[in-house]
Amino acid sequence: MTPRVGVITFPGSLDDRDALRAIDYAGADPVALWHGDDSLGAVDAVVLPGGFSYGDYLRCGAIARFSPIMAALIPAAKDGLPVLGICNGFQVLCEAHLLPGALTRNDHRHFVCRDQRLRIESNTTAWTADYQVGEEILVPIKNGEGCYIAEESVLDELERSGRVLARYVGGNPNGSYRDIAGITNEAGNIVGLMPHPEHAIDDLTGPSSDGLGFFTSILHRLVSA
Amino acid sequence: MTRPIDSVTHAASDPDADQPYAELGLKTDEYARIKEILGRRPTSAELAMYSVMWSEHCSYKSSKVHLRQFGDKAPKTDALLVGIGENAGVVDVGDGWAVTFKVESHNHPSYVEPYQGAATGIGGIVRDIISMGARPVAVMDPLRFGAADAEDTRRVLPGVVAGISGYGNCLGLPNIGGEIVFDPCYAGNPLVNALCVGVMRHEDIHRASARGLGNLVILYGAHTGGDGIGGVSVLASETFDADGPAKRPSVQVGDPFMEKLLIECTLEVLHEGLVEGIQDLGGAGISCATSELASNGDGGMHVWLDRVPLRDSTLSPEEILMSESQERMCAIVSPAKVDRFMEICRRWDVPATVIGEVSTGGRLVIEWHGETIVDVPPRTVAHDGPVYDRPMVRPAWQDALVADAPTPARLARPGTPEELRATLMQLVASPNLAAKDWVTGQYDRYVLGNTVLAQPEDSGVIRIDEVTGLGVALATDCNARFAKLDPYAGAQLALAEAYRNVAVTGAVPLAVTNCLNFGSPEDPGVMWQFAEAVRGLADGCLELGVPVTGGNVSFYNQTADVAIHPTPVVGVLGVIADVARRVPMGFASAGDSIYLLGVTRDEFGGSEWAHEVHGHLGGQPPAVDLVGEKLLAEILATAAREQLLIAAHDVSDGGVAISVVEMALRRNVGAQIAIPAGIDPFVFLFAESTARVLVAVAPDHEERFTRLCAHRNLAIERIGTTLAVSELNVDATFTVELAELRAASAATLPALFG
Fold first, then answer.
1. Which of B213, B223, B329, B605 is the most exposed place for a label (fewest CB within 10 A)?
2. ipTM for the complex shown
């Protein structure tokens, strides 16, 4: 059976359609999920898409984290359900304490949208197995609050345990500590990523098709499981 | 302290009460006309409605007599599904798909409060598009500011850009292009225009009309507050004592999150067929929406104004009628469908309230706590406003301006290779031609995943149908210096440039929208400019075979007696059968031939060179050649369809030299250019003759492409080749590294704006 990958739409989610399309391109079954539902249905993995959930009011991701569906997602993720949070989704994962650290205002204080080179630092997660470590990919980045911060001890621990998933190369777009673009939890099933792989699934609408690997990775993981 | 309600009964019993009509912007004869229509003096609520609906902004009273030409001279076409007059025109793009697009101004609010002015400009145009039943798919922003290094530009530009970024990005609409132009004439009068394009199936087209006796009027979206109440504060000032909350912002404040919910909620209720008529609330708020819906429909409507949910409970009925609070819509829904409508609104957390119903009798009746405060024929408010055929005179200074031609004797021209190189470097770094990444890098161009081309490409290209690859291309343009020299020709040149920018992508131009930014219509010289520009645009559209589907007029862009250059911004929409065959602007590989299509003449009137190097504006603008533009567009569409082109780029501001630089910098591929025999190098490099395009053609397609041009008698000349080295080499004249060009181009805006 084709694996089913859900995408949660919160009020103010914007890249939910793009994430559904990327899942479809990769060959999995895209499933639209609604923030107000209290169950995940029968999905095998979940993407939290980019956008401005609840208008970024209070703090980015701070309100979405309390949505009914998050009450179902948080324990499932802790039990190993693969979850990818992109941009605002990454912010939600940090607010939900599924990932350490926080995302704050870009150091230059402007929203930034550009094509960004990343270096893949770990391919042992559920979402990056199709990449080579050290591989450079080109995907769009677009955020106003994408500066990843954490305490030094947390950063050291992330580095030590190989949980820095991707780093910015060719210029840090938002001031993220240690050029961190994405991280994972200890088990490698929960991934937060500030850049947008769902906007790089073909050369026609993106700067490359380099982002598709995140979605084929999860497909291959689920098929082989 | 409460004021007695000025009900209809009260107005009849107190017929000679003094009313502040002049302060509300009404002329004495306009006020007399209202009394004649009603057979009594208006109530203060009616006065507020008439004053705002009969304002220039809402009634087009000075422009109507001229704008009729867009309909009268419209070319015959089957593509137009909804014409001028609705919220936005609708164009058939094939396969059952329709596209609606419109550009609007938000100039004055953006000067007062740049962030909110620009933000709510986007909000307003997006609601116009969803009112037609379309899903908005992209926005663009044509922007004009005073001199780049002026103190006030440093206040206005960053605020406007942040407003567009903050609001537009949060809505989830890709920003795919637009313009950023600097000219001292816009100091104190920046132009902030906003364009939105939306897509729908033919059967989803909706109209703004209230039909069906007993159908309900539902106001949904944000609560109504005191923001955006302009002239009506004159009425309000009678209400409140000095300590009252009278000082409210006259610029509206936007909430993009609510707008995003409103978009999704509206599309869902439309998709389920729950709506008989729909209208957004923009200028003039509830006054406009109720009177237009009623006027376009069966003609009668009864509204209980006290049911409107308020942010500020102290608002007077006049203020509620006039409030321009953002993110509100009005729908006409049959009683049987109201429950489902409300359920969808709740799902999206969008407040919705039944505030009225469609009635018989042809009157718009508005009640406030049981008292009738408005009882008018809605058509007299919405459509039968005053119409003026204002006096117009060709300005006395026009002849002297045109006589001051940029001849070699008048303006020194570069001659030596060093001078030509220095001129190129100066233009590349000039604010109008420099890279705009500082601005466009703050806009999301990727969201929705259908952006095929975005700035700095000639057009934005959006995929509509993922299965067939059907897409649309959009460009906006206007060189206002040309329009100042000759408004008739200037409007046609704006049209020609936007048309060409669509054509270079391989799309077929289909329809036109416009945003006509001018000074005061009460100045006969400005009125002449306006009339000439409209006539030029209407004639040009007829000749090119592309109808005007709608637009917007912004007058009073002037400070004291000094008006902006006439700025008729023209937007052209084209259709492309398969976006995979779009032609981008950048050189892609070494060894391709570079061809110049069209004819270069010694034309520098209003050019970027004259403006930037000499601060000069005079002479004639370049000759209009619409026959040439049409031929060029046809050949480019064929060549794109047959995939003969690697790249194509319009030649306009800064001439061939700037176009080559832009093509080279796009993907960092160098070029060698040979100046053709028999033409002055300066003229060849920098003249701004129209109907010209540069293309790059791979060797194996050269014969086929040049034959195609020769067959149609299009002037074509091979002027160079792309290189494997990153440099621009102008034969026997000068060489510049692309890195040096890029650095010069990239540094300008960050240095100015941080």
1. B213
2. 0.96
